[in-house]
Amino acid sequence: MTTALSPVTAQWQELFTLYLTIGTAVGSIVIALLIYNIIRYRHKPGSPEPADAPTPGKVPADRGTIGAALILTLIVTGILFTITLGTMETVDLIEKPPEKGTMVIKVHGFQWGWKFIYPNGLETVNEVRVPRDEVIIFAVTSDDVFHKFQLIEFKIGVDAIPGKVIWIWIKPADTGEYTIQCFELCGVGHAFMTGRLIVMEPSEFESWYKG
Amino acid sequence: MEIPLNSVRRWLFTTNHKDVGILYFITSLYFLVVGGALAVLMRLQLMAPGLNILQSAPFNQAVTVHGLVMVLWFLSPLAFAFANYFVPLQIGARDLAFPRLNAMSYWFYLFGGLLAAIGFFTPGGAIDTGWTVYAPLNTAKYSPQLGVTLGGAGLLMLIASVTMSTVNFLVTIFRSRAPGMTLWRMPIYTWGILLTVFMMLFAFPSVAAGVIMLAADRLLGTLYFSSVEGGAILWDHLFWFFGHPEVYIVLVPGLVAIAEVLPVFARKPLYGKKILITALIIGSIMSFMVWAHHMFVTGIDPGFRKFMTITTETISIPFGVATLAFILTLVGASIRFTTPMLFALGGVALFIIGGITGVFNSSVALDYYLRGTYWIVAHFHYTLVGGATTGLIAALYYWWPKMTGRMFNEKLGKLHFIVYMIGFNLLYFPMHFLIDMPRRVFTYPAGMGWELPNMLATMGTIVFALSWLILFINLYQSLRKGEPAGNNPWGAWSLEWLVPSPPPRHNYDGQPVVKADGTITIQPIPANGGHHIHETHYSKWPLFISLGMFVTFLGVGLGLPVLLLGALILIGSIVGWAKEKFIAVEPAEGERWPFANVERVRLGVWTLLFGEVVLFGALIGSYIFVRINSATWPAPGEFLNPMEGAINTFILVTSSLTAILALAGAKSGNQGLLRGGLIATFILGFIFLFNKGREWSELFSHGITFSSGLPATTYYITTGAHGMHVAAGLAVLIYLIIHAFKGRITKENHAGLEGFDLYWHFVDIVWLFLFPLFYLI
Amino acid sequence: MRVVHYVAVWVGLVILVALELVVFNAGLPPAQARAGIIGLASVAALLVAVFYQHLIREPRGVALLYIAGLLAALGLIIGMVVSLGVQAGLGSF
Ligand code: HEM
Ligand SMILES: [Cu+2]
Ligand SMILES: [Cu+2]
């Protein structure tokens, strides 16, 4: 697992791990229960038929009660809603960047690449440079068809839709090169609709941005 | 028409539910092979980074046709192969309520599939937009090739097929149950099919509206999906309002197949049958309230998204309950590990895994990233293949002896199971680890850590494909030299096991009856009272009508002569159908709650109309959507004349009066009122259409065409769809008028007219809304 | 139902549609005019369904399924409209 690249990334990883833990536990228990029953109640030579075994030409008797239904439902509901609690919080985090000085970079998906427009009008294609440790907002839209702008290492992405602008934000903790890729089928060039996110030291970025 | 049983014509012209079931069975397996071959090609291409087996364009076609074919032409139709064969048997009926409609439904399904696949042989190739056909990639600007139009035409034929099936199964299950076969006593598979067709009834019209609008965009130049006010989000709504119920439409038959098989081999009754049914009912209803979880990251309103998150979490509850009911069924059992039982148990296990990954996706926070990744691919293959398909394989082995009269080889069956489980998990489990890899890419770079899972998945594909080969060999051998099966090889309780394998054409030599204590007997039909029944089992018109439709759609691509030829075949065979004397026998008595007094044709038309409500709802909804989403919109009266609309409204309302008077005339034996009413209705309907035509041509002469902005687009297409309904009504009217003048519509015999009346009033109701929506506000 | 009843319903329908035109021309504020007109249209549609389609005589199951279809359609329409809402989350930027 990568170390947290950005607050949202950390939160996502945490949440995913939580789901994975509970999901694996629940899945294992249920499948274990299934296997246990299969083995325990297998047919053994000479063992008699259950008293209420289905008989040809007779509608079987009912089995199970309303009380049982309630218990079943409660079990499932309980499990489900325990794991949802974490969710809403993270959504808020994804959608509400910290308020301080933010740079909004417009992202235009097109067949097949990404165009980035900085606040000062600077435009780049398939490569976007940002300063480390600062909140960057990507305002994502599309010039033609439906794409999805995804920052793989940051575990965040959002749909790029013509006529709509959707925001996501990151606050990169480390310098380096990261992968941008389109995650929605958009035509023959889809597989190659990739780009690079380059995180720079703020000072380096500053001189690049001005220059 | 009598036809020897071993002739080809039997299979072309049959209307018997068991024959049609077998046709569905074979065809769905054929489409499985088609979809499977495409999948193997894709997996070979993805085996390692940078391969060149399937280039980008063919890969996109393969991935699209694979998705469409597997969901719509393999999985659902396989479920309906069994539904066709066994629902009438399980409820003690002699056939479906409308046998010719059933045959036609099959042919529409087959020709629809051919239309979609024919695209491979056209210049631009087959449809390549992904099975979700997202806008605006689906528009002529970005996908001009014929293959996309053909794919849309194929979808339309499939939707028509599904609609016919829906009407047929609902009427059959509600009208043709044997005495004593109450709803609660129905076998669980029939229950599942009942819920499935209910979901189909309300889900498919939404995508039908979407495809109609898409066709208009592509062929007439309207702007639904090429404008940003409609576009991607509009399609998303129309598609997923269908799409989510659709995944349950595909899933539920698989689950109930498991529920049908488990108790037989566990030798214990299904645990909590009523609980399970209740859970499935709740799940089916809720499946219409979760569609936006496919739109979590499209920037929709957060409050709406929260609502859909909660409903998505909630909908897992019924399916969790179902899973636990399956497990509890085993408690106290004496399990026989036959092949069908192994697949049923395996299906439960795989479905658990797919259900759990679904819960991940329902978290908006996680879905921001998960959407569009291979994780999603893993999720839905565990549910659709692991759960649904595995369940249907259980059903296949379970019912095969009944359908063919022969047993299969148990050893080969068990081998199939083992290879299947290994192949499946090797194929799909590694995809969970491709959580960083996008779906639907034809290649990927090395060094991202994606090599191993991809390699494993491709190896799994080969193993998985082999497992199907074992199945086919087993079936082939069984047909050639399988042991005779006898009536009831498994010791099952339900009705189909009381008759020979395969059952005789009319199913029962007598009338099945379920007594109060649950005992099922087949009572001889009294020779004196009951006249001898002679149902018809053949008709050539279902095939010819479908062929006409197929050629007509081909003509859209190939040009006017072909189109005219198609229309000619279509009209000729509709007339042939109308004139044919076809006898379908409804049981004289039986369980019909809650539709005891709703006669067969009337119930059929009602059912159709319930779906039509959603069709027009989707069209009107699209109009409202683009209108709210548009910065400006012409004020009322600005480009349409309210007076003209009002006059047409009066005309249509009056035609409803004349139609109801004609019916009143028929019921009271007043032939004058009947004939006069029908003719007046025809004239008024005709004037309505004439006025519409004038209005359109006037608009056109002012330069307001299909592509003159969304107000024009929505007006033309919505009222155009309504106008087509009026025109179809007029066609039926001609038929009714001829019958009325031949004196065939009488006090006792006016079911057709009654059905027409319902339809005509519905068309009137729709206009009562369209008029104010387009002319006054 | 007798012929006079059907004619009476027709008269009702004609009046309702005429009233829609009256509301349309009354110069009400748009929201009120819309509500009034759609309300009148709904009453007219209800009349047709109840008396011409004979919902009044059909078993309750038919009406229930009709309503189910209507709810599905309304659910779709409302969902579509509501989803337009405001831009997710960061709309203030
Ligand atoms: C029960 C059987 C299920 C079936 C047959 C099924 C099927 C599918 C399919 C086919 C897709 C992908 C559609 C596409 O994009 O092409 C999908 C996505 C999804 N499923 Fe399921 N699913 C099932 C269960 C669940 C459950 C139990 C949940 C939630 C608790 C769930 C939640 C989701 C979500 C949220 C998505 C959208 C993910 C995304 O594309 O971002 N599913 N499902
Ligand atoms: Cu793309
Ligand atoms: Cu869904």
Model description:
The complex is a heterotrimer of chains A (about 210), B (about 775) and C (about 90). Chain A is an alpha+beta fold and about 210 residues long. Chain A folds into two domains: about 5-45 and about 65-95; about 100-210, Immunoglobulin-like. Helix content of chain A is about 35%, strand content about 25%. Chain A contains three helices and ten strands; from the N terminus they run H-H-E-E-E-E-E-E-E-E-E-E-H. Chain A has helices at about 5-40, 65-95, 200-210, and strands at about 105-110, 115, 125, 125-130, 135-140, 145-150, 155-160, 165-170, 175-180, 195-200. In chain A, the strands form two sheets. In chain A, strands 3-2-1-5-8 form a five-stranded mixed sheet. Chain A is elongated, with a radius of gyration of 26 Å. Chain B is mainly alpha-helical and about 775 residues long. Chain B has two domains: about 15-520, Up-down Bundle (Cytochrome C Oxidase, Chain A), CATH 1.20.210.10; about 630-775, Cytochrome c oxidase, subunit III, four-helix bundle (Four Helix Bundle (Hemerythrin (Met), subunit A), Up-down Bundle), CATH 1.20.120.80. Chain B contains 21 helices and two strands. Chain B has helices at about 10-15, 15-45, 55-90, 100-120, 145-175, 190-220, 230-265, 275-285, 300-330, 340-360, 365-370, 375-405, 410-430, 450-480, 540-560, 560-580, 600-630, 640-670, 670-700, 710-740, 750-775; strands at about 510-515, 520-525. Chain B has a two-stranded antiparallel ribbon with strand order 1-2. In chain B, strand 1 and strand 2 (about 520-525) form a beta hairpin. In chain B, helix 4 (about 100-120) packs antiparallel against helix 5, helix 4 runs parallel beside helix 15 (about 540-560) and helix 13 packs antiparallel against helix 14 (about 450-480). The longest helix of chain B is centred in the first third of the chain and has 36 residues, at about 55-90. The radius of gyration of chain B is 27 Å and the shape is globular. The termini of chain B are far apart. The mean pLDDT of chain B is about 95. Chain C folds into two domains: about 1-55; about 60-95. Chain C has three helices and no strands. Chain C has helices spanning about 5-25, 30-50, 60-85. The longest helix of chain C is centred in the last third of the chain and has 25 residues, at about 60-85. The interface of A and C includes residues 94, 97, 139, 167 and 169 of A. The complex binds protoporphyrin IX containing FE (HEM) and copper (II) ion (2 copies). One copper (II) ion binds next to helix 7 of chain B.
